[in-house]
Amino acid sequence: MPLPPMPAPPQTxxxxxxxxxVWITGLxxxxxxxxxxxxxxxAILAPGxxxxxxxAMMLPASLGPVVIAIAAVVxxxxxxxxxxxxxxxxxxxxxxxxxxGVVQLAWxxxxxxxxxxxGMVVAAALGLLLFPSVFxxxxxxxxxxxxxxxxxxxxxxxxxxxxxxxxxxxxCIVQGATGKRKPRKEDG
Length: 188
Hints:
Blueprint: H1 9-57, H2 65-111, H3 117-154, H4 161-178
Helix pairs in contact: 1-2, 1-3, 1-4, 2-3, 3-4
């Protein structure tokens, strides 16, 4: 008995390849929009966990499952530590560059002279020291904006500021309402 003919996969594959990135971007944008502040640490640390487990899976099977499991835990912990340190360094460097860039642009407008070299150094040092604490407070806003832009692109309205602004505002409200911590009970 002959096999039935296969359906034509090129057209199905073509449709899938054209629509899947849009859906993935839309779902990722919605997730960032509504819960980006809560998922930030997970997104930073997950590659370290996955990399550590993947590295442990490359060990020879002759070591035994217990040794491989212990190696997976140790390598995943090392990966988490590396990802955490890289994120901290990146936030500090971004702060230094961002504040120095703002001073480079604003100094000539405010003073009317070119920015002195020491102004850039002071601005970079301030950005290096102060930006990380500001960044932690801005995570919900940044993830809501990124999620709004991704979601607007996925529905075909990336230039519509009303759509992007409405999504951004909704994301900020949802993240602000769901992210409140309970006040600590006072002793005594």
